[in-house]
Write a structure and sequence with these properties.
Helix content is 68%, strand content 1%. The chain is mainly alpha-helical. The protein folds into two domains: 3-87, Arc Repressor Mutant, subunit A; 137-267. Helix 2 packs across helix 3. The radius of gyration is 23 Å and the shape is elongated. The relative contact order is 0.08. Residues 158-165 have low confidence and may be disordered.
Amino acid sequence: MSGNELEQVKPIVEYLKVLIDSYPKPISQTELARRSNVTKSAISKVRTKLLGFCDQRIGFFDRKLLLKDDTETSSKLLNLFGAEWRFNDFLQSSYAKSIIQKLNIHGRLVEAFKELSYEYYFSKDDTDIIVNIVLNNISSLKFSEEFKSYTKKLSKYKESSRSIFPVMYIFSEAFSKFDVAAFESEAELLNLLRLRDKFYSFVLDNSEKILRKWDFVISKKIEEQDIYINVYKETITYFLLKYMQDFTNKIRQKAKEKKLDFREEYGTIGALWKKEPS
């Protein structure tokens, strides 16, 4: 969506906010006016612009408004709410959740990380939790001034094959700002902790496989490769354990605030899920 197009539709963003929250239920102009605290005539004035985002058949025959769910429309809505710095409004809406569901993210990750056995470690429910965490944090990191700072730092190491150390420090800084405690009950708390342990095992079990395909390692003499791999595996293990401990501390604090029991064994990384011996 161009700058001119964005300027033209910005006046209707509040009405679109109602529509993304009410999706997939069509609503009348009267209902839209009521929820937006404006007059029906105010909606009538922008009806043509609203219809540009809506299913035309429902709009003309049923006189109701229902957003289209095609890629072009969802992209325009994301751009619009992004331009207004209202990513949370969009990403937490019923409309966005429906679009994300259709993307089959779990299936895509299973296929993308087939060599790393993603499906063995993570179920669809696990992937849904991961997606929720990302969505809950995306506006505060990806589209903020802080993220621009991280991107600038990372770009300095983009061309370097030895970038693993600074990248991990930068990732640690960004990770420390994540709100990862997405739970409201003891069952959800346990699911999140099991996900922690699955992720821990997933990274450790696959680290050597990934490192052996790394250009920096491949470029070394055969007799040197194992030495470099062991050094980097120790580095990954150190940082990974640190991240998981930080993750656990955040969950422990949230559990305390929510008055949920955080048992002593919950604090041990790897206590709630272990890979079955092959």
